[in-house]
Amino acid sequence: MKAFFEGIQWLFETIFFALHDFLRNLELTHWFAANILNWIFMAICSVAIVYWCLELKKYEEKGEENQDTTAHSFLK
């Protein structure tokens, strides 16, 4: 039974967390490169927010958006 749990430990430490170990060691020399995944996620979120705001503006200009408070039954 002990070998089974040691096998799980080896799998996680050696295989699954290899990228995390690499990024942890990389941070000591290249901070920007170590945080590249964070920069990518921030860029994706920024583009999504800009797109969403432009779509909201488009619907607002067309007058298609129903802003009446009775549009939802729970607001009555």
UniProtKB/TrEMBL annotation:
UniProt source species: Flavobacterium fluvii
Protein name: Uracil phosphoribosyltransferase
Keywords (A to Z) from UniProt: Membrane, Transmembrane, Transmembrane helix
Stretches that traverse the bilayer: 31-54
Top-rank lineage group of the source organism: Bacteria
UniProt-listed InterPro entries: DUF6341
Name of one Pfam family that matches: DUF6341
Lineage: Bacteria, Pseudomonadati, Bacteroidota, Flavobacteriia, Flavobacteriales
